[in-house]
Structure formats: C-alpha cells, structure tokens
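Record 1 of the preview.
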Amino acid sequence: MHWIDLTIFVVYLMFMLGVGFFFLRRNKNTDDYFVGGRQMSSLHIGLSVVATDVGGGFSIGLGGLGFVMGLSGSWLLFSGLIGAWLTAVVLVPKVHRLSKRQNLLTFPQFLQNSYSKKVALIAGIISAIGYLGFTSSQILAGAKLAAATFPALTFNTALMVMGAIAVIYTVIGGMKAVIYTDTIQWIILMGGLIFVALPLCYYAVGGFEAIQQTLPASFLSFRNISWQQFLNWMATVIPIWFIGMTLYQRIYASRTPKSAQRAWFIAGLFEYPLMAFTGVLLGMLAKVAFENGMLAVAGFPAGSAIDSEMGLPILLKTVLPIGLTGIVLSAYFSAIMSTADSCLMAASGNVLTDIFRGHNHPSSLRISQFLTLLMGAAALLIALKMPNVLELMLHSYSFMVSGLFIPVVAALIKPNNNPTAAFWSMIAGGGTSLSLIILNPDLPLGLDPIIFGISSSLVVFLLLAALTQRK
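->
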C-alpha cells in the first residue's frame, strides 16, 4: 500500500478514536454510556441502526454472496427492509413508551416487565453470547480486509490489530460516541462504495460486456436462489429486529416514539435496495476480475482456490489508484467498526444490567468500561477460531433469534404473560439451535437450524402456557 493511502487510513482511525476520547469525559452515568441520554435525533439513530445492522459483516459477506451467486444475494438484505418496517409499526412505539416510564437500558429489561427477573436473566445470557459472536464476525471481517490490503500482515496479526482498535474505541466512547460516529462511518461507507469503488471497478473489469461474457446467466437473475435459502434468510434476519439488543438501545436513545419510527423507516431503505445491490454488484465485479485473471498479480490466478469473501478486498487493492485505495479501505473499516462497537456495547450492557444487575452501582460507569474490555478480548479469541464472516454472523443470529423471538412476540400480544413458558421456551429454542449448529447434522430439506429452534421454542411456550393455565 502506498504511503498516501496508508496516511488516509491512519488519519481516519485516529479521528474515530478521537471522537471516542471526546465523549469519554462526557459520559456521566450508565444512562449516557448505554442509551446516549435518550435525546438522539431520528437521522442519527436511523443511520446508526443501518450502520450497525449492515456493518462490516454484511459488507464483506454481501461481496462474497455476489461472488458466488450474483444478484440473488441481494435478497439477504431485503429481509432487513421487511424487519425494519415491520418493527417500526408493531414494536418501536410500545417499547419507547415503556422505556420512558421505567428508564430501561437493555432489551431483557423489556422482557422482565412482561414476565419476570428470571426470564430477563436467561434472555441476558442468550443476548450476551449472541452479540459476543456477532462482534467476533466484525473483527474477522476487518482482519480479512486488512490482510488482503497489507501483504506484510499475516492474518492473525491483522486480527489482533483490528480487535485492539475496535475494542479500545468502544470502551472509551459509549453510546453517544457510537451513534455520532456511526453517522460519519455510514456516509464514508456509502460514499466510498458508490462513488469510488463501484464505478472504478466496473470500468476496470471491462463494463457490462465483460460481465455478460464472463458470468453465467444465473448471476444476472433474481431467481438464482432456492426457496430453502430464501426462507432461512427471512427466518434469521427478520426476527432479529424484534430481539436485537443494539436496536432496543437505539429505541431508548430516541427522543420520541415518532422519531424512533422515522429512524427505522430510514434504516430499511438504506438496507434495501441501496446497500444490498451495492454489495452484491461489487462482489460480481470481483468474480469477473478473478475469472479473467486480473487478480493473478495478487497471487490468485483464474481457476485457483480463493475465499469468496476475499475476492472484493483483493480487487479493490488491485484496481484502485493511489489515494482512492485509502478512501475505500476507510469506508470498509467504517462499516466494520460501526457494528463492532455497537455489538460490544450490547454484550457488556447485558452482562452488567441483566446478569450482574450492577447498573445502579456507584462505579457502574467504570465497571461498564471494564466489562466491555473483557467482552472484546473474548470476541477476539472467538474470531481466531472461526474462518467465515457470514457463517459466524448468521450462527450468532440463529442462536439469539431461536431463544428470544417467541417470548417477545407473546409479550407484544399479551403484556402480562406466562414466565414459566417464556423461560423454558428460551432454553428449548436457543439450546436446539446451538446443538444443531455444533453437531451440524443433515437437516430435512436443507433448512437452517433456526427453523427448528424457533419451532421448538413455540411448541414449548404453547404447551407450558396451556398446562399452567389449566392449573
């Protein structure tokens, strides 16, 4: 990498760390640290929501999907649009009003209001574990990008560098820093990808004629996807909008229910079609470049083995001129950091508030920062063991959704519900999904473990609710 690109990238990183230090002394308590003082505008919240939800995992993962399946990979974020708009109508107003009355800090506290402290405890454990895995996927995405861009860096070294930057920035900044920098990061990401990476890569590979001649016709179709894959994506992504700790924190941080709803509508449109098509189109261009031997200079000649998620970073490094490489690299790291920081905040918030119940301690702010540091170190260790960004991210989604989705839906339908049914449905759903992920058996019809996790959670909830009602 040329020194000009490296300078641009380092300046970007220093600026983000500077924002974190700016808010370090402005966080007076856990209310500031976890929910930004509850006075954030809809634009900042909306951009923060989409930056957190899409982030580095989906940015790198979408490029990988475009590399292996073409335009049909965009269906992954169509589920994000549905999830955002659906929850804007049925979830956001109710949760915001409750948070104002009871000063909620976390998602499990919402469940405690509908069920019991024991239910909130198990929800906090499930959420913390899930967001720990999700944070790991973002660090892994950053490491892949850094290793592809800096040939002198080994993958493990890149992983350690990315992990350290993401964790330090999150520990010192809190939610205000996260939301304000998310706004900046999303603007950098979309500007870098749409106005720099996309046109230059399109021109470099030979335009639409080269795409038609190189890629199979299925890559230009929206039907290059099985119904099982479509169902798996919908079942994984849509429910996360109902149970995502990072999303509840942003509902709590909004000024009013209306501003929170506007933020969710903004986020949905940014996810699909904007980010969905930008990501897969760049992945398709990387596939064209690879098949035509353009990546041979980076050690990946046509026909060689290549990680699909590495294709796009290698293409960017190969075709972008000096100066623009640093801008686009900063754009991708923006996406990665915007999700990593939010997921770390969610995990540490779950541990402090829902597991240890220490948010009212006199030193709760410092304890929060220490827990964030510990959770970041644990996420880094997980990232060292998992090779695939999208797989790790979707497994984390599956575990959380399987355990938490049914009790949340039941709470929205009937606020004062059955705590016993909710507790055991969480155990059944999360346990089923996690067991299937670990054992990796051949599941019927090629369905994802999340389908069986949600189903088992629903069956247990309905069965125990009926039995308890009879008693």
